[in-house]
Specification:
197 residues, alpha+beta, four-stranded antiparallel sheet, Transglutaminase-like domain-containing protein, signal
Length: 197
């Protein structure tokens, strides 16, 4: 009887919410991990998205949500070591390339959509560009429900802890890089190109 009462109480009490999502890292999604989202984190995300009263406000909220989900994942994975682009990571265990970032952002966008939090957009499949033939790059995509415009949601450009860039996909496709990171990325590319025979 003593064992039966705690068991009945556990069945009657509401279960604590604990959503789990997959995250990948180490370039090309070669490593995978699961991370949990607590009830409190779930509620914060729901509240942040609920405050968006326009498509542009929702894109800002999505950027905040993607950043929050990365920070939650970093508590149990080494992704906090990731640096913007591909040349500054070195051998960091948690490094991510654009394949990792586009996959993770797509996972996050689909999660937000499944929760019913996206009112003005929906998650779309990742897109890729190769404006300079060898410079292949991927991004997560958000599609506007009203006009069908696609928006790149790209977290690859910046160091861990920075929000993703959200720009029209048509602009992103031209080789867009945010001004604040363009020069360091160019310098890193030059340095790498100069070191190869």
């Amino acid at each position: 009887m003593r064992l039966l009462i705690p068991l009945l109480l556990a069945l009657l009490l509401p279960a604590a919410r604990a959503d789990a999502l997959n995250i990948c890292y180490h370039y090309g999604c070669s490593r995978h991990a699961q991370f949990g989202i607590s009830e409190e984190e779930h509620d914060w995300l729901a509240t942040r998205l609920a405050r968006a009263d326009s498509a542009s406000a929702e894109r800002e909220a999505v950027a905040d949500a993607v950043l929050a989900l990365y920070r939650i994942a970093a508590r149990t994975t080494p992704i906090w070591q990731d640096r913007g682009g591909n040349f500054r990571d070195g051998p960091a265990e948690g490094r991510m390339d654009c394949v990792d970032h586009s996959s993770n952002v797509t996972t996050f966008l689909n999660y937000l959509q499944r929760q019913g939090w996206l009112k003005f957009h929906r998650a779309a499949p990742p897109e890729w560009r190769a404006p300079w033939i060898l410079d292949l790059h991927y991004t997560g995509v958000l599609r506007d429900n009203t006009d069908g415009q696609n928006w790149a949601v790209d977290s690859w450009f910046k160091d861990f802890g920075e929000p993703p860039v959200v720009v029209p996909l048509s602009v992103w496709m031209t080789g867009y890089e945010p001004p604040a990171v363009s020069e360091p990325v160019r310098q890193a590319r030059k340095s790498k190109e100069g070191s190869t025979p």
